C-alpha cells in the first residue's frame, strides 16, 4: 500500500481500498468527481456488508443481476473447477460447459429458440441480435422504444431510448424510437401505442429488420404491459416482415416469476438476448438465442462477428450451474409466490405515503414511482436527471434506505425493487419497514 495513501495523512474518511479505487479506477456512468465508492468486504444469502461493519439487505440484487443471491456455492465451485481444468480455449474448440449450456438454454427458453451465440454482457448480446437481424432479413432498421435500455456500446446505445443515449448520438444509422406501454398517468393507452407502431412500420416501407423490446421494461421504470400487448406486437412485427427481438437481460431467469419476461405473456420471440441472471452475475456472460430458421441462414452466409471471450468456458460453467440451481431449488416458482407477497407489501406502502404515485410489477420485478403531487404524476426532477449532476429526491430516498440497512437501486424517479430470488417473506418485511421510514423523505419534499 503506497505510504502517501494512508488514511491518517489525508483524513478523508476513506479506507485504503476506497482511496485506491477513487484514484485509479474510471467509474461507470458518472461524473468522476462524484464517484464515492464504498469498500465491500463480503456477502451471503440476500445480504452484503462493507469494511465498516455495515450490512444491507440487497433489495435490488446489485444491478438486478445477482438472482441467486450471494451464496450460490454450486456456481462458485463450477467456476473453480473449470478454471483448473482449462480456464480458456478459443471459441473454435468445443467445451462441455458451453455445449451443455447451449442445450440447457434451448430447454428453458420458449418455442423453438435453440442456437445460442455466447458473449460476455447484455450489451454484447444486443449487438449480436442487431447484427443477426440485419443479416438475416437483409434490412437495416431497428425499431425500439423510448423507455428502454439495451446497452452501452454504439449499436446497443443507439437502440436505447433513455437519456443515456444522448451523449452517444447520433449513434448508428437506422434506429427509430416508438412510444412505450407506460400506463401510469399517461395520455397514451399502451394498446393504442401499438397501433402507432403498426403505422410506423407501414410508413417505413419494408426496411425494418426487427422490433426490439424489453417484454417488461426494467431500468426505465418496471413497465408491465397489458396481457394482450406483446402478442399483438409480435403480430404487427411479422405483418411487416420484421423480427421480434425480446431483450430479457433484466427480466429473464425468474425475475418476473417465470423463466423469461415473454413467458408472462406466452409469446415466443424470434431472437432473445440474455445476461445478468444467466450466470447470476458470478461471471460475465451474455447470450443471444435464435430459431433454427434464423440459425440456418448462416450456414451459407458468414456470421462476421465474435469476441476472444465468446463462450468463455469459465463463464459458461457458471451459467450452466446457475440454471441448474434455479431448477433444483425451484426458484422460479418461489419468485412467483414470494413476489406476490412483495407486491402486496408495496401496495401498503403506497397507501401510507402520498409521494408513492404508483407501485407496479410482477414476481420479484417491481417498482415504486414517486410523485411530487398527490394523485397526479408529477416527477421529482426531469427524465434527464440520470445524466445531470447532483442528487435528486429519489437519490435521497435510496440514501435513507441505505442508512437503514437496505440497498435499493433507482432510475428516473422510480425505485427498483428486484431482490435475489431466494428472499423470504421475513426479509421482505424487514426491508419494507426500512423503506417505510425512507419514504418520509419524499413525502416531506412534496408540493404543499
Ligand atoms: N438490456 C437490458 C434490458 C438491460 O437491463 C441491460 C443492463 N442493465 C443491458 C441490456 C446491458 O447489459 P450489460 O450492462 O450487461 O451490458
From TrEMBL:
Q: Which residues form a coiled coil?
A: none
One GO cellular component term noted in the UniProt record for this chain: cytosol
Domain of life per record: Archaea
Task: Indicate the family of this protein.
Answer: Belongs to the class-III pyridoxal-phosphate-dependent aminotransferase family.
The GO terms describing molecular function are:
pyridoxal phosphate binding; transaminase activity
List cofactor names only: pyridoxal 5'-phosphate
Is the Transferase keyword given for this protein?
A: yes
What's the protein here called? Aspartate aminotransferase family protein
The source organism is: Natrarchaeobius chitinivorans
- Name the InterPro entries for this protein: Aminotrans_3, Aminotrans_3_PPA_site, PyrdxlP-dep_Trfase, PyrdxlP-dep_Trfase_major, PyrdxlP-dep_Trfase_small
Q: Which UniProt keywords apply?
A: Aminotransferase, Pyridoxal phosphate, Transferase
Amino acid at each position: 500500500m503506497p505510504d502517501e495513501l494512508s488514511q491518517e495523512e489525508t483524513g478523508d474518511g476513506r479506507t485504503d481500498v476506497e482511496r485506491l479505487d477513487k484514484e485509479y479506477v474510471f467509474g461507470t456512468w458518472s461524473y468522476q468527481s462524484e464517484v464515492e465508492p464504498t469498500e465491500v468486504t463480503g456477502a451471503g444469502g440476500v445480504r452484503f456488508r462493507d469494511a465498516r461493519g455495515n450490512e444491507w439487505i440487497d433489495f435490488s440484487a446489485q444491478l438486478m443481476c445477482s438472482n441467486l443471491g450471494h451464496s450460490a456455492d454450486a456456481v462458485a465451485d463450477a467456476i473453480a473447477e473449470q478454471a483448473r481444468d482449462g480456464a480458456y480455449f478459443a471459441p473454435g474448440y468445443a467445451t462441455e460447459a458451453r455445449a451443455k449450456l447451449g442445450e440447457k438454454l434451448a430447454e428453458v427458453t420458449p418455442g423453438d429458440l435453440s442456437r445460442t451465440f455466447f458473449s460476455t454482457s447484455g450489451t454484447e448480446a444486443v449487438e449480436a441480435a442487431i447484427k443477426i437481424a440485419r443479416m438475416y432479413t437483409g434490412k437495416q432498421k431497428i425499431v425500439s422504444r423510448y423507455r428502454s435500455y439495451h446497452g452501452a456500446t454504439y449499436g446497443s446505445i443507439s437502440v436505447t431510448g433513455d437519456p443515456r443515449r444522448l451523449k452517444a448520438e447520433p449513434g448508428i444509422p437506422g434506429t427509430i424510437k416508438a412510444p412505450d406501454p407506460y400506463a401510469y398517468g399517461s395520455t397514451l393507452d399502451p394498446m393504442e401505442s401499438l397501433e402507432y407502431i403498426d403505422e410506423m412500420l407501414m410508413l417505413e416501407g419494408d426496411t425494418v429488420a426487427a422490433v426490439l423490446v424489453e417484454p417488461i421494461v426494467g431500468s426505465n421504470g418496471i413497465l408491465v404491459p397489458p396481457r394482450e400487448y406483446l402478442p399483438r406486437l409480435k403480430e404487427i412485427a411479422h405483418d411487416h416482415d420484421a423480427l421480434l427481438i425480446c431483450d430479457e437481460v433484466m427480466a429473464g431467469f425468474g425475475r418476473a416469476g417465470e423463466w423469461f419476461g415473454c413467458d408472462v405473456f406466452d409469446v415466443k420471440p424470434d431472437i432473445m438476448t440474455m445476461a445478468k441472471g444467466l450466470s447470476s452475475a458470478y461471471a460475465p456472460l451474455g447470450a443471444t438465442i435464435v430459431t433454427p430458421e434464423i440459425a440456418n441462414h448462416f450456414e451459407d452466409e458468414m456470421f462476421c462477428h465474435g469476441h476472444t471471450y465468446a463462450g468463455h468456458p469459465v463463464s459458461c460453467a457458471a451459467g450452466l450451474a446457475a440454471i441448474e440451481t434455479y431448477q433444483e431449488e425451484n426458484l422460479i416458482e418461489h419468485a412467483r409466490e414470494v413476489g406476490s407477497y412483495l407486491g402486496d407489501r408495496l401496495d401498503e406502502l403506497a397507501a401510507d405515503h402520498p409521494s408513492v404515485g404508483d407501485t407496479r410489477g410482477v414476481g420479484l420485478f417491481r417498482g415504486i414511482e414517486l410523485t411530487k403531487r398527490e394523485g397526479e404524476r408529477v416527477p421529482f426532477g426531469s427524465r434527464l436527471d440520470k445524466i445531470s449532476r447532483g442528487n435528486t429526491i429519489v437519490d435521497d430516498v435510496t440514501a435513507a434506505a441505505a442508512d437503514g440497512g437496505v440497498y435499493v437501486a433507482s432510475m428516473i424517479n422510480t425505485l427498483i425493487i428486484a431482490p435475489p430470488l431466494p428472499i423470504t417473506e421475513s426479509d421482505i418485511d424487514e426491508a419494507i419497514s426500512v423503506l417505510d421510514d425512507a419514504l418520509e423523505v419524499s413525502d416531506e419534499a412534496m408540493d404543499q
